[in-house]
Amino acid sequence: MRKIIHAILTPTLPLILVAGWGCADKAVSTPDALLLVETAYKQKDYQRLMTVTDSLEHTGDLLNATANYWRGYACDRQKQKSEAIAYWQKAISDAAKSESPENLDIYVKSASRLANLLVLNRDYKATLDMANPVVERLEALKCDSTSDYINLLIYIGLSQVSMGMSEQNTQVGFLRACRKHRENIDKHHTDAAYKDAIAGLVNIAYYCVTAGNYESALYFTSNFGDLLIEYEQRSEADQQYVDRQVGRYTIYKACALNKLGRMDEAAEAYRAFLATNFSTTSEGQKLAQDYQQ
What we know:
14 helices, mainly alpha, about 75% helix, Serine Threonine Protein Phosphatase 5, Tetratricopeptide repeat, 2 domains, single chain
């Protein structure tokens, strides 16, 4: 199950990191330098990515924070988790020294990826200690609308849930994340905005179920379902993707209802789950085990 959630939690990596936050000075990384990094990234040549990053940082074509972000990324992909954590911590520290667009972009991306690893390592206190100050800084700078920022809100909530903090406190962060996702959808109307929001709600629903917060799980699962209906009506909606998400939606709903003793409703949701192609996949079958226990 944790491997499944790892795939969901890992943020989507853009091909070019300069996102145009518009929060302060110009970035210093050159387009040619970013192209070299992008090429190694796209080829999944992580040793070359490390070499190129070292060289470009030495020549001044990459910011220190950007270089450490990519080193962390390369280490993570090579299963060198402790090294990835160290590089992303350094990238956060380096990026905190400037409010340039590139530094802020790297700052939140590094924090999001670091939080992902820390949550997967069940180091929830370290997640909160790192993520809370990053979120506060981004909010103070009015740079709080990207998917990576919203991911941080979710990681904070997941850590609070896992540490047994009050359900009311965890819901505040989750509700903020949902609101930010809704704002991004309303502003951009893109496939990516919908999928970012759906991934966020998948994680929230899953962790609420596993933490035993079943009423909260139903609330966020309901929001998840509404979002899926809205996404499915888009002309470019990927039906295979929709089937996977409907499968997750129905099995999380079935699990929560079952634990609340609402057996008829749980059985109906489970039948809807079995009607999806997703239910026949290895991931779907693993999720079904949670309902059957």
